[in-house]
Amino acid sequence: MAKQRRVVVTGMGAVTSVGANIAEFWTNLLSGVCGIRPVTLFDASAYRTQTAGEVTEIPDSFLTSAEKRRMSRADRMGLAAATEAVEQSGLDLEAEDPTRVGVILGGGTSGLLDSEAFFERTLAGRPARPSRVLNHLPDAITDRVAQRFGLEGIKSTITTACSSSANAMGYAYDVIAAGLADVVLTGGSDVLARLTYGGFNSLRSVDPGPCRPFDRERRGLSIGEAAGILVFEEEGRARKRGAPILAEFLGYGVTSDAYHMTAPDPSGAAGARTIRAALAFAEVNAEDVDYVNAHGTATAQNDSAETAAIKVGLGERAREIPVSSIKSMIGHCLCASGAIEAVATVLTIQRGQVPPTIHYENPDPACDLDYVPNEAREHRVDVALSNSFAFGGNSSVVVFRRANGRSIP
Amino acid sequence: MARRGVITGAGAVSPLGRTSHEFYRRLLAGETAIRPMTAEERGDLQATEIARYDGFTPQPEIPAMKARRFDRGSQFAILACSQAVAEAKYDIAADPEAIGIALGTGSAGAGALTEFLRVLLRESPEAAPPFHFPNTVANAPASQVSIELKLFGPNVTITQKDPSALNALLFSALALSSGRARAMLAGGVDEWNAVYAMGFDRVGALRGEKRRSGIVQGEGAFAVLLETEEGAHTRGATPLAHLTGTAMAGVPSEPYRFAPDRTAIERTVRGALRDAGVEPAEIHLWFPSRNGVLEMDEAEAEVMGAVFGSGSPRAISVKDAVGEMAASGAGQIVAACRALADQDGPFPAGAATRRALVNSFGAGGNFLAAVFESA
Question: Taking a contact as any Cβ pair under 8 Å apart, which residues of chain B between 248 and 287 contact chain A?
Answer without folding.
Answer: 248-256, 264, 267
